[in-house]
């Protein structure tokens, strides 16, 4: 089948709307029909929500659907599934896995989380100690994961675990799909500085995972995880935003609406950060255009670095601009939100929430190394653990 062009996609979208009018079709039913029509993510293969079309044509579909008032799949709520699990499934999943998981993932009927970081393996993720031991047709998993966004909502998780402690750390890891409703999976909230428990810690005790839910070969989970991590950094740092979207928007509006708060120093700082935010936004646009040609590369790490730094500097400027008012905090009630909200609520929330931006999705220190080595071509840091079996590493 020849991949459709823009006029062809418009026709298909109009046919979808005629057969399933948004005003009279339930939200889930419409999203399922959209997926089945190949209009979910047009660059995916036919039969998996796509049409093998160029990624650059997705906005053609989105614009037609938005004009008709069609529902979206609430991407902020299911961002981990869309931005991390889906491209990994597409790259390494079996045909059965793709057929089983991609449709309910995209429609939002099944929420996903990411079981990667551990208390002793965050920045050095490859040092993870969660074990998966083969038992017949199953793997038995024991360990602890931490900083797991949306684990309290998730049905499925992408999980990496150590399957061979006798080889160097990067070579003894395998990648699995974990059912969060299975016996032995315990989710505990982690209350953050914002007052919310958006993150969780997850304890895995004797959790049985069928071998049919393994992604990639045994022992090659680190390679699979790299696809997840690169897509994660793009989804965090390279998200599509309008001009004055994100953190810069609220502080720019406050500046315009409340001239009595202005000082010359704050003006200069705001101008600098506004320009940097716009440069980051345009760089993100260029990065998404590069994705049309293939998989994300290390450039996503640079975008994620800029995202974290700008969010922290802009939110700090906003609190300073507001003076005493900026020291107020609207609500510190303990709750477990349904989505990750980097910019919502009041200035105090934005200031506190941004502190996590330089940790989640890869710490800034690790990302600086990636940019230095893989983008700038600088010499790699000396490593003493490269050829040492994981079991022999100092811990």
Overall shape: globular
For the record, give the distance between the C-alpha atoms at the N and C termini, rounded to a whole number: 55 Å
State the share of residues found in helices, binned by percent.
40-55%
List SSEs in N-to-C order.
HHHHHEEEEEEEEHHHHHH
Strand order in space, largest sheet: 1-4-5-8
Gyration radius over CA? 22 Å
Class from secondary-structure proportions: alpha+beta
Low-confidence stretches: none
Question: Would you report the number of β strands?
Answer: 8
Query: Average pLDDT, to the nearest integer?
Result: 92
- Major beta sheet summary: 4 strands, mixed
What is the tally of helical segments? Answer: 11
Question: Roughly what fraction of the amino acids lie in strands?
Answer: 5-15%
In short:
It contains 11 helices and 8 strands.
How would you characterize the overall build of this protein?
The protein is α+β, with helices and mostly antiparallel strands and 395 residues long. It contains 11 helices and 8 strands. Strands 1-4-5-8 form a 4-stranded mixed β-sheet. It has a 4-stranded antiparallel β-sheet with strand order 2-3-7-6, with no helix packed on it. α2 runs antiparallel to α5, α4 runs antiparallel to α6 and α6 (221-237) runs parallel beside α9 (299-322). The chain starts with 5 loop residues before the first helix and ends in a 20-residue tail after the last helix.
């Amino acid at each position: 089948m020849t991949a459709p062009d823009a006029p062809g996609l418009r026709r298909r979208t109009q046919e979808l709307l005629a057969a399933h009018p948004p005003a009279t079709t339930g939200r889930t039913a419409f999203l399922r029909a959209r997926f089945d029509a190949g209009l979910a993510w047009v660059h995916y293969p036919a039969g998996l929500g796509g049409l093998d079309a160029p990624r650059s044509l997705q906005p053609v579909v989105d614009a037609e659907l938005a004009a008709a008032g069609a529902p979206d799949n609430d991407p902020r709520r299911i961002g981990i599934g869309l931005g991390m699990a889906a491209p990994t499934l597409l790259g390494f999943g079996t045909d059965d896995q793709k057929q089983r998981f991609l449709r309910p993932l995209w429609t939002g009927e099944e929420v996903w989380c990411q079981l990667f970081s551990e208390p002793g393996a965050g920045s050095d993720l490859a040092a993870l100690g969660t074990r998966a031991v083969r038992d017949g047709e199953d793997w038995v998993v024991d360990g602890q994961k931490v900083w797991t966004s949306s684990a309290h909502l998730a049905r499925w998780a992408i999980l990496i675990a150590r399957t061979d402690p006798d080889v160097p750390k990067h070579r003894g890891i395998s990648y699995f799909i974990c059912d969060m409703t299975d016996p032995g999976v315990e989710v505990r909230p982690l209350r953050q500085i914002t007052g919310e428990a958006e993150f969780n810690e997850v304890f895995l005790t004797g959790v049985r995972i069928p071998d049919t839910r393994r992604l990639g070969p045994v022992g090659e989970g680190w390679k699979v995880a790299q696809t997840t991590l690169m897509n994660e950094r793009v989804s965090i740092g390279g998200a599509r935003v309008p001009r004055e979207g994100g953190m810069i928007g609220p502080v720019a509006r406050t500046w315009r609406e409340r001239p009595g708060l202005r000082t010359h120093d704050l003006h200069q700082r705001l101008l600098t950060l506004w320009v940097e935010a716009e440069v980051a936004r345009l760089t993100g646009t260029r990065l998404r255009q590069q994705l049309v040609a293939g998989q994300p590369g290390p450039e996503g790490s640079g975008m994620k670095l800029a995202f974290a730094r700008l969010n922290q500097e802009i939110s700090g400027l906003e609190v300073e601009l507001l003076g005493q008012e900026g020291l107020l905090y609207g609500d510190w009630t303990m709750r477990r939100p349904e989505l990750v909200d980097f910019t919502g609520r009041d200035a105090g929330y934005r200031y506190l929430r941004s502190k996590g931006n330089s940790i989640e999705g890869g710490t800034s220190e690790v990302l600086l190394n990636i940019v230095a080595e893989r983008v700038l071509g600088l010499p790699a840091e000396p490593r003493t653990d490269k050829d040492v079996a994981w079991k022999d590493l100092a811990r």
